Amino acid sequence: MSAHTADVVLTTARYGKDKVRVFRVKRESDGVHYIVEYNVTLLIEGDIDVSYTKADNSVVVATDSMKNITYYLAKVSDYILVPEHFALHLGTHVLSKYAHLHKASITIEQLRWTRITVSGQDKPHTHAFHRDGDDKRVIQVVLEKTDGKSLSAKVTAGIADLLVLKSTGSAFEGFIRDEYTTLVEVPDRILSTSVDLEYHFAPVSIPVPTDPKLLDFSIPKNLGEVKGTVWDALSVAERARQCTLDLFATDESASVQATLFKMGERVITENAGVDQATYKLPNKHYIPVDMNYLGVDNLTP
After folding, report:
1. How many CB atoms neighbour CB 235 within 10 A?
2. How many CB atoms lie within 10 A of CB 280?
3. Residue 20 in contact with residue 70, Cβ under 8 Å?
4. Cross-strand bridge partners of residue 155
5. 44: closest CA among 110, 100, 109, 83?
6. Would you state the pLDDT for residue 1?
7. How far, in Å, CA of 154 to CA of 135, rounded?
8. Counting beta carbons within 10 angstroms of the beta carbon of residue 92, is it exposed (0 to 12), middle (13 to 18) or buried (19 or more)?
9. Is 256 marked within a binding site?
10. Quick check: helix, strand or coil at residue 247?
């Protein structure tokens, strides 16, 4: 910090509530239950600088209030089962309720729960579930006030920690060899990675609610016109995960880079509202043990 305090200014201020744990059971009239488990982070920006520079808390929305707003919306929102839509609803409500706030950033991490299929039954169980993987859906939403009548929203979604492995169908050859190279070229190898995927939807505009409780929020009803957009988020997520698994399994991989590009290309091609996709595929190496000293060759593919 400068010795000349008059030169010190607050350039950016943001705060909020991290990791609000939400578990919601939605019971339908036909006896079928739906569940979601989220970790929600809500951060806000706006005219809050005096809480930092002058210790004036009159502009502070307590993080306890943010937690309780999240719980309340999780109960009353019609969009709780779709994390992208719930995040948009939550951010819309917060920015509409507090006039001095101008920007809300919401991150939702969704844990996997899948219906149990009981032996001998045709349909999955109506209210019994199991954790069928450690990968998570991760949603990031940023909403900003624009003209007072609408909010601009940017939505990013994806997958984190999807662990995959195949025992053949992968090679790594033809790379630069020089005095620093010790890696042996391999025409056939085990390929394993923990997939992180992030895809960006085209920005959307959301009307500011005008009802007394500022809870109005609606999405387009004609999903035929919004296929592949943020309003089709669950289908986009299913396609993105499935194409990731399909290409990982079936691509005769010349390199992680080549397979990664094919995955991203397919995510964008299959979803008209997705304009960018980013994959991270770090190698999870399985190195064969050299047993030649015992007369066993287990290094030759």
Report:
1. 15
2. 13
3. yes
4. 141
5. 100
6. 44
7. 23
8. buried
9. yes
10. helix
Provide the token pair at 256.
């992680």
Catalytic residues: 17, 63, 285
Written as six digits, the tokens of 52 are 């930092």
The full DSSP string for 168-193 is SSB-B-S---STT--PPPBSS--EEE
Cα gap 146→297, rounded to integer Å: 67
Measured CA distances, 201 to 54, 62, 125, 139, 292 (Å):
39, 31, 33, 11, 53
Strand 33-46 versus strand 274-280 pairing type: unpaired
Q: What is the pLDDT of residues 146-171, one digit of tens each?
A: 888 899 999 999 999 999 999 999 99
Gyration radius from the chain CA atoms: 24
- For 24, the 3-state DSSP assignment is strand
On whether 70 is known to bind a ligand per the annotation, the reply is: no
Q: Is 59 exposed, middle or buried (0-12, 13-18, 19+ CB in 10 A)?
A: middle
Distance separating alpha carbons of residues 184 and 173, to the nearest angstrom: 8
Q: Where are the beta strands (DSSP E) in the chain?
A: 15-27, 33-46, 101-111, 114-115, 129-130, 136-145, 150-166, 191-201, 204-207, 274-280
Which residues, 6+ apart, have CB-to-CB distance to 212 below 8 Å?
A: none
Tokens read off for 183: 């890696």
| pTM, rounded to two decimals | 0.92
User: For the segment 227-248, what is each residue's pLDDT rounded down to a tens digit?
Assistant: 899 999 999 999 999 999 999 9
Q: How far lies 12's CA from each of 15, 45, 61, 142, in Å? A: 10, 8, 17, 16
Tell me whether residue 250 is annotated as binding: no
CA distance 32 to 271: 30
Q: How far apart are CA 123 and CA 125, in angstroms?
A: 6
> Does 161 belong to an annotated binding site?
no
